[in-house]
Amino acid sequence: HSIHQIIKEASLIYCLPTTPLQSFFQTNKLSVQESIYGYIGWIFAQHFLNRLGSEYTSLVNILDSSNSNHQDVLSKMKKRLRTDTFTRDYILEIIKTYPELVKLLYINFAMIHYVNPAVNSLTPTLSYQRLRTDTVLTDEELYEKIRRTTSNSHELMVFESFLIFNKHVLKTNFYQPTKVALSFRMDPSFLPEIEYPTKLFGMFLVIGSEFRGFHLRFRDVARGGIRIIRSRNREAYSINLRSLFDENYALAATQQRKNKDIPEGGSKGTILLDVNQQDKALVAFEKYVDAVLDLLILGETPGIKERIVDLYKKPEILFFGPDEGTADYMDWASAHARERGASFWKAFTTGKSQSLGGIPHDTYGMTTRSVHQYVLGIYRKLGLKEENVAKLQTGGPDGDLGSNEIKISKDKTCGIVDGSGVLYDSEGIDRSELARLAENRLMISNFDISKLSPKGFRVLVDEVNVKLPSGEIIDDGLSFRNNFHLNPMVKTEVFVPCGGRPESVDLQNVGRLLDADNHPRFKYIVEGANLFFTQEARLRLERAGAVVFKDASANKGGVTSSSLEVLAALSFNDEEFAEHMQVTADHIPAFYQEYVKEVQTIIERNAHLEFEALWREHQRTKTPRSILSDDLSLAIVKLNENLQQTSLWDNLALRKVVLEEAFPNMLLKQVGLETLMQRVPENYVRAIFGSYLASRFVYKYGTEPSQFAFFEFISPYSLKAQQ
Q1: Alpha-helix runs per DSSP H in 138-182
Q2: Which of 17-21, 413-417, 483-487 has the weakest average pLDDT?
Q3: Same-domain pairing of 24 and 130
Q4: Alpha-carbon span 323 to 224, nearest angstrom
Q5: How confident is the model over 635-653, as pLDDT tens digits?
Q6: Residue finishing a domain among 526, 554, 582
Q7: Can you tell me the distance from the alpha carbon of 518 to that of 620, in angstroms, rounded to the nearest whole number?
Q8: Residue of 71, 192, 234, 447 with fewest CB within 10 Å of its CB?
Q9: What pTM does this model have?
Q10: What is the predicted pLDDT for the residue at 275?
């Protein structure tokens, strides 16, 4: 026991070499495992302590959810309650006051997840001695002990959160002999429905010495990116920390709505770098991936990776994609999954390099192709000439969306905001210079300012006291950059956010996008960046007369590309995959080139279909497009799930007719339908069948079809199946 214990404790210290509870270990008040468990509980409490209370729930029920002022008050109250009630330091002080409760809670955790090692032993270490000798309390006895020991309701709530944590861990690598970070597969049923109305399917909490992070998904088979969140200073870190889980949940929910055209549901991963570890993104990502794999792959190597207690009792696969800060790490994750013996390594990550069969979103402008279809749709419907339309864009020529938006568009771009600052010229920014930056993925700090008109300017984030051509003095470049999209000096008709922090425009600042007559300063907004606007802000702009297409509709191209990349990996065997999908330095397979073109066509077709449906439904019902977008998504997701359970799937002839339309032509030609149906897992094929029919039906008939509409829709397929 002792040797095994020392290995496990050394491994824990490697994962988290310093924690605020270290002094308790050094003075023998807590063992290594107890102190690190206490640290994990502290982190869990920071994110999930229910600070809103029953009064908040009552208020939610009383107020009108469609009233934006009511929503604004609730939003502010929620932020205040969460921020002020329990600060990180306050929670830590409570934990430090009661080390004996940390011991008892640790034993409660260990009795479920501790796996007895081999019998041969020397002297047991402190952690194991405690585990053997301390009294084991039932959950009820433990709660009663906490209630009697703590001196007020706040202290009780902190330790209650430890109990909630213990009861909802389904599996963990805490006791694995070797690990690089700690991971916990959680049952998400403890999340309050009032705050998280759509139930999560799965939830992972990952904690390392450089970071903490989550992975959330809404369906068993789900797709979404992994995002690195950096913080410029301690204040920014505190804000990012408070909003981490809510942001992750919102991003995954957006992904779920965005994935309406594909078989997979929505997921998202976040990695928040600690305030003093801002240069450790790659290390944090590698540890995050490895710790998650600990819970996906069965441990079969004694002393290295052993079997763990698995209360979930089902195999799980997660699919990771690129997101902010992780686009260059997908190859490593795929190769690492292969090294660790994961059977799903080929499909584990998307956005891989072409040598591994990946279809890079940025190289082929996959997300931008979807976003731009909405921009072109607006011009088409309103008879506007693209070359004459003035545009503001956040997200610069160094980013995926930003660079491709510059390459694909022909408009008069007047403003660009990126990580380095602001570039603005009311006469239109020089297109050839923009194209040079986009081609080389350079920030606007590299723009040749001699190519600006006399009215143009550039202000970088680290500049102070900059004089603009108008004579205005800009005190602080960083603040100017952060708020430029709200600045009334911006005079453009179109705004396309291609980057920027979530909720950059919310109810509190959306008024700055309206002029004195309550007219929108931007007539047309296509939200390329995820969650750039809050829903309340979108609705306020739409009421003022703006045409707004939200993120879940506009930027779904990237995820469609990822899904079709995985479909190719599932359709080919290893030899065929190497021949047709893996690009070498001197050879791009002919199949790959044609398949990429077909993926682009599918993305543009899906975006066009949804744009037309949203425009038509808005004309018919006058419902805001931002609400219609969600209604369409929910209708497709619900119909998809229903269709997969109907007898339609059992009709083999009909199934084949639908799949011949749903599968990409290039795969049908190269592999054949029969082979595709054999090789691609049945639950995946069933999801392709359901999502294709559901999206095509809803795009054609809307969210309120007549009772005969589906019969009319399915009849041509049925007739074809009978021939």
Answers
A1: 139-149, 153-168
A2: 17-21
A3: yes
A4: 8
A5: 998 999 889 888 999 999 9
A6: 554
A7: 25
A8: 234
A9: 0.79
A10: 95
| Residues 6+ away with beta carbon under 8 Å from 581 | 357, 568, 569, 572, 589, 591, 592, 595
Q: Which of 268, 305, 391, 556 is catalytic?
A: 268
CB contact set of 67 (below 8 Å; sequence gap of 6+): none
Residue 117 domain boundaries: 1-51+86-175
159-204 pLDDT, tens digit per residue, is 999 999 999 999 999 999 999 999 999 999 999 988 898 999 999 9
Same domain, 147 and 11: yes
Q: Which two tokens stand for residue 386?
A: 């693209």
Q: Mark out the alpha helices in 544-680 (DSSP H runs).
A: 551-554, 557-571, 574-581, 590-621, 625-645, 652-662, 665-670, 673-679
In whole angstroms, how large is the CA radius of gyration of the chain? Answer: 27
Please write down the long-range contacts of 285-288, taking CB distance under 8 Å and 24 or more positions apart.
285/226, 285/228, 285/326, 285/329, 285/332, 285/333, 286/180, 286/329, 286/332, 286/336, 287/180, 287/181, 287/206, 287/208, 287/210, 287/211, 288/181, 288/206, 288/208, 288/211, 288/213, 288/226
Residues 229-266 have pLDDT tens digits of 999 899 999 999 999 999 999 999 988 888 989 999 99
pLDDT at 64 over 90: no
Pairing mode, strands 182-186 and 412-418:
unpaired
User: What secondary structure, in 3-state letters, does 416-429 show?
Assistant: EEECCEEEECCCCC
Q: What is the pLDDT of residues 567-607, one digit of tens each?
A: 999 899 889 999 999 999 999 999 999 999 999 999 999 99
268 labelled catalytic: yes
Number of structural domains (the chain) is: 4
Identify whether 355 is part of a domain.
no
Same domain, 572 and 700: yes
How far is residue 12's CA from residue 19's CA, in Å, rounded to a whole number? 11
User: In the chain, helix, strand, coil percent, each to 5?
Assistant: 55, 10, 30
Residue 590 lies in a domain: yes
